Amino acid sequence: MQALAGVDFEKLRDAAAEIRDRVLRNLDLYLEHFERTATNAGACVHWAETSADVNRIVLDIARQHGVRRVIKSKSMVSEECALNDALEAAGLAVVESDLGEYILQLAHEPPSHIVAPVMHKSKDEISDLFARIHQTPRKTAIPELCREAREIMRPHFVAADMGISGANFMIAETGSTLIVTNEGNGRLTTTLPRVHVAISGVEKVVATLEDAATLVRLLPRSATGQSITNYVTINTGTRHVGDHDGPRHFHIILVDAGRANLLGGELQSMLRCIRCGACMNHCPVYQNVGGHAYGWVYPGPMGSVLTPAFVGLENAGDLPNASTFCGECAVVCPVKIPLPDLMRKLREQQVERGLRAKRERVALTVWLALARRPRLYALIAALSAHTLSRLAGKTKLLHWLPFGSGWTKGRDMPAPAGRTFRALYRMREQKKSNVGD
Amino acid sequence: MSAIEQNAGAKERILARIRSAREAQESRRKIELQEIARHLDAHPRGPRLMIEDEAGMAGSMQARFLERARAMASTFEEVASMNQVPHAIAAYLIANGLPKEVVAWPEFSRLDWRAAEIDFASRPAAASDLIGVTGAFCAIAETGTLLLLSGSETPATTSMLPETHIAIVHADRSVATMEEACMLVRGAHQQLPRAVYFVSGPSRTADIEQTIVLGAHGPYRLHILLVGRASHS
Q1: Contact criterion met (CB < 8 Å) for A240 and B22
Q2: Are residues B38 and B78 in the same domain?
Q3: How confident is the model at residue A436 (pLDDT cuts 50, 70, 90)?
Q4: Is residue B51 part of a domain?
Q5: Is A369 exposed, middle or buried (0-12, 13-18, 19+ CB in 10 A)?
């Protein structure tokens, strides 16, 4: 891999995991340190317990500074809060500036990937959308579409009173926020408007500039295969005396919204996550069902852990079960989060808390009883395979299953081959020994 | 009462939740704080590229910088001295069919732009400006990156708003990695400038059908002039 030339990926992963763990072990102390350094540099630090609090605080900041127009660069935390809806309801004009997020804003759709949010849309759909909403001649080439978006958005950047960004990392040493972007919208959002609001989860603190540098070396490699993103921007405090640009007011919102509850528990390592999206890029389930099927902000394996943790296991019980446990997500994770283990823990919690369907528990009890009696198991398996194969007939598809009508309501079940694996294996061994004779 | 005032207890409640989960006892707080202070003070560097090891020859840093800059879709030219900069820029603008009208950082006012027939303005860039000329605090070899700092003499918009960004960097300002660049910034500034911009190539997007397009919200082109490289052959 070209992006990795010269640096040992395994060493980097170990270092990155330790950088994240170091902060998580003493998160309260690092947050207090960050608040001090950020405040000394001229920023105003806010604490939000819930996503609703985030929206209230942003609206309050907007009122305080007489803000009417808002430009946003990508922030997944703001997606958790449905911040755009809250701002629009309060009469503020909001424009998403990341090209993908902008397209989704026009289409009124949620993102389907945390790094490439509009992956689910084709160029033709975007051409139609732009022609309809921008009232311009329909463009067909991708560079033309990008230029049109740039030119439509430029006046919004210039006119905006407030820029809202996320923060990939917050640096305790210097009180800074750091963002990575390729489009350059992050730089404009944090430089042009007179008010800058950075929204970030409390877990995104790192200790030093050097620690941030190690993570920046890893994040783009895992996210897009780049050795570095086109832009890495570190913002510290407000406009200095004599400066021609930069915000006059800098607000940083530290968001809990379920994160602190993960500390000290079985899922703590999930807080290492740097939102690169590598786990979803390598996930066979994500590749088949797409991001929207996960039902909330975060898709893929990281979403299957984060979503139940943030919105409650009782509201997202299917997610930790939507995994083949192939283990690829843990292999590619740049901060070594054992994602399959965490999903397994969530499955255990579901059983312990009685959140699984009664039918499933009964089925597993029956299976367990059979599995302990190998002869009986073989007999029943052979009978079922035979019957189901007969039932399916020539199409080899079952439109209905005994005890499984819920499953077959929306799809067909491929029929068994008629003979069990054990029967086939026995036949093969016999054939071998015959040949041997 | 505003939402922010109503929210006054949020910090204590969030910190209490975090503390209740912490393995370390409150009695260890002092020790932990010392440990944190030590780490912040030492700010150790992680695994990174050792360019000296890669090729133990002088000038390898600049060579690596230019090679990586090219990989990030920057273009570049080497010039022996600052006096050659206006002519080099004029040649670049003509070759690319661009207007000979630039806005630049004040430090370049003393160069002879008239001789190169360039319309030169020393002011921060506005949204309508097409060519922005900046310097750079340093160049990072590992990734072909330029480091720009905000400041009264180094307006940030000049590298952001125009469609073409031309950056002038001295060869002796090359460092190996982001970590070395951070040390240089620490040495030059007690407190970090408001913004530290790492810039690697022109802006780009791959949001539509994962097709890379150069020129998103930032410049379409980044042209680097590397000045005064010693072992320039």
Answers
A1: no
A2: no
A3: low
A4: no
A5: exposed
